[in-house]
Amino acid sequence: MTLALIDYGAGNLQSVRNALIAAGAEGVVVTADPDAVRAADRIVLPGVGAFAHCRDALFGIDGMVEALGEAVSDRATPFLGVCVGMQLLADTGEEHGVHQGLGWVPGTVRLLEPADPAAKVPHMGWNDVRAARPHDLLVPGEAYFLHSYHFAAADPAHVVATSEHGGPIVAAVARDTIVGVQFHPEKSQAYGLALLRRFLDWRP
């Protein structure tokens, strides 16, 4: 099995790669080559930083967005987005202006505005992941979060896990062969490794 870990200058690639290997992945290819993405059996899109920067970096790779569309939308290749890689699935993001996302999971990425003033932004540290509806990859547990913006899904049916930070926030979204997680599996120790193992074994 070949797994394409997309290198667009906006992710902690080595940590994600190490976690995938620890979870049992073989054939992990760190790549910015659209042809490698088309040929992959699994795709992981990491992301750290601002939505606008990550979006511009991903869209700036000639042919990458088209290759992702062919692989995921046309060929139903299993896809995992992590943190900003999950946020890029949305229609738009509002960090540093309004910017177009991939539009694969309808919604908008908005600034976290907790109702509880004790809940600080960014949301940083360990927090519960609660199942919102059954999904092969998501189970209740505790994961590591680090973000200031959150995914406001247009359709609640796409929300498969939530967390709490001064109010409910989306921890994971899913549609068809696409899954995105707001938390960092590569920093979530046993919980994160177990999720990555399920992704590697997933046959949606």
Give your account of this protein's structure.
- It is a single chain.
- The chain has 204 residues and is α/β, with parallel strands linked by helices.
- The protein has a single domain, classed as 3-Layer(aba) Sandwich (Rossmann fold), CATH 3.40.50.
- Helix content is 26%, strand content 31%.
- It has helices at 13-22, 34-39, 51-59, 64-74, 84-87, 189-201, and strands at residues 3-6, 28-31, 42-45, 79-82, 92-93, 99-100, 107-111, 123-131, 141-147, 149-153, 159-164, 168-175, 178-181.
- It has a 9-stranded mixed beta sheet. It has a 4-stranded mixed beta sheet with strand order 6-5-7-10, with helices on one face.
- The two termini are 16 Å apart.
Which blocks of ≥5 consecutive residues have pLDDT under 50?
none
Q: Give the overall average pLDDT.
A: 95
CATH architecture: 3-Layer(aba) Sandwich
User: Helix- and strand-based class?
Assistant: alpha/beta
Number of DSSP E strands: 13
As a percent range, the share of strand residues is: 25-35%
| SSE arrangement, N to C | EHEHEHHEHEEEEEEEEEH
Count of structural domains: 1
The percent of residues in helical segments reads 25-40%
Q: Taking strands numbered 1, 2, ... along the chain, how are they ordered across the largest sheet?
A: 2-1-3-4-13-12-11-8-9
Oligomer: single chain
Largest sheet: 9 strands, mixed
Distance between the termini: 16 Å
Tell me the CATH topology.
Rossmann fold
**If you compute it from the alpha carbons, what radius of gyration comes out, rounded to the nearest whole angstrom?**
15 Å
**Count, helices:** 6
Report the top-level CATH class.
Answer: Alpha Beta
Classified in CATH, the superfamily is Class I glutamine amidotransferase (GATase) domain
- What overall geometry do the principal axes of the alpha carbons give? globular
